[in-house]
Design a protein that fits this description.
binds zinc ion; mainly beta; about 0% helix; 2 domains
Length: about 200
């Protein structure tokens, strides 16, 4: 664990593991990118998250399908019809952190996968079409524009604190495939739906 200092408020920021690429100061909400040489580059101010009832909180520990995890961070995404939450979780077995998506009581465990195939521009993606994405044939069911409404904690992804981004989602075999079009990067996530009882807290 590396201990760094928030340039905005002087608070201590402890970077939890080597996968962390972005942090939000827990005292003042300043956002930073974490550089390999242990420096923090300001990335903007993160909006505070108003509390809402969830089974999870940053700092909680739990078990999914026999694997122990700690909750490192939380992002709330907003779109025209509502919002959803993504929880960054670190595995105690040392594997790269994954994401738990919470959407109206449904939970999906997402792992990031490197994009290996050419993807169409966001504008060209059509709901109802089938797109090849890496080894998946994705039937596109959803295409939207969203924004980050707030964040807290630490993250293995770099996401925009301001502005909007496009994403699409679809099904491939028994996975959910989600593609985010960030400004500089396309991020691919492969999801497995979790039954409520497969997440044990504490
Ligand atoms: Zn701070």
């Amino acid at each position: 664990m590396r201990e760094l200092t928030c340039a905005n408020c002087g608070g201590s920021i402890q970077v939890e593991n080597q996968f962390i690429r972005a942090v939000t100061c827990r005292f003042c909400g300043a956002g930073y990118l974490v550089r390999g040489d242990d420096t923090l580059d300001p990335s903007g101010q993160s909006a505070r998250l108003a509390d809402y009832p969830s089974r999870l909180q940053v700092g909680m520990r739990g078990v999914i399908r026999g694997r122990a995890f700690t909750v490192l961070g939380r992002i709330r995404y907003a779109y025209d019809a509502g919002f959803w939450e993504e929880w960054q979780i670190a595995w105690e077995d040392g594997a790269p952190p994954d994401w738990l998506e919470e959407d109206e009581g449904y939970w999906t465990l997402y792992r990031r996968e490197r994009v290996k195939s050419a993807l169409p521009a966001f504008e060209q993606v059509r709901v109802g079409s089938t797109l090849p994405v890496n080894n998946y044939r994705v039937y596109v069911t959803e295409k939207r524009t969203a924004r980050v409404a707030g964040s807290e904690g630490q993250f293995s992804s770099v996401f925009p604190l301001t502005g909007t981004f496009g994403y699409f989602q679809g099904g491939a075999d028994n996975h959910t495939v989600s593609v985010n079009y960030w400004q500089d990067e396309i991020e691919l996530s492969i999801g497995d739906e979790l039954d409520h009882s497969e997440i044990r807290i504490g």
